[in-house]
Amino acid sequence: MSIVPINDQREIISSDTWDPFKNFFEEFSSSLDLWDPLLDFPSFSREFFPFHHQTQINWKETLKAHVFKAYLPGFTSDQVIVFIDDDRILQISTDDGKFMSRFQLPENAIADQVKASMNHGLLTVTVAKEMGNRPNNVRVVEISGSD
Fold it and tell me: Which keywords, in A-to-Z order, does the entry hold (predicted)?
């Protein structure tokens, strides 16, 4: 017995004509009456979450600083606000309220030494860090290969 239907000439019949699972999943899922715990929960609209500009912020730690990069297309440097509060929290936001992101700075960040620049929508915030004790056994490893 063959699962795949064949005709008298032993040729496979097109899968469009016979599908053993056709409509199985649609019928199965429609017959389930699942409880939805969020059914009566208010919808998430902009009144609950007014920040609707989506961007990614990259945080990179170098030997001398913490570098934050955010791409904010359509915004100028006059429309972006960068500040660090007394709790050592860096906040990057837009003046129209469409974007805001906050970061707790690590202990080695020097909050008084912050630089920010913006070029073509790319915001770069550099926070200097204290040069701690570096291990003496750090060495550069040469990378070989053919690129």
Answer: Stress response
CA distance 129 to 114: 10
Name the maximum alpha-carbon separation found in the chain: 85
Reported as type and span, the H/E element at residue 26 is: helix 24-31
Rg, Å, the chain Cα set:
29
pLDDT tens-digit series, residues 106-128: 999 999 999 999 999 999 999 99
**Residue 91: CB atoms within 10 Å:** 13
**CA dihedral in degrees (95, 97, 98, 104; nearest 10)?**
90
Q: Are 32 and 71 in contact (CB under 8 A)?
A: no
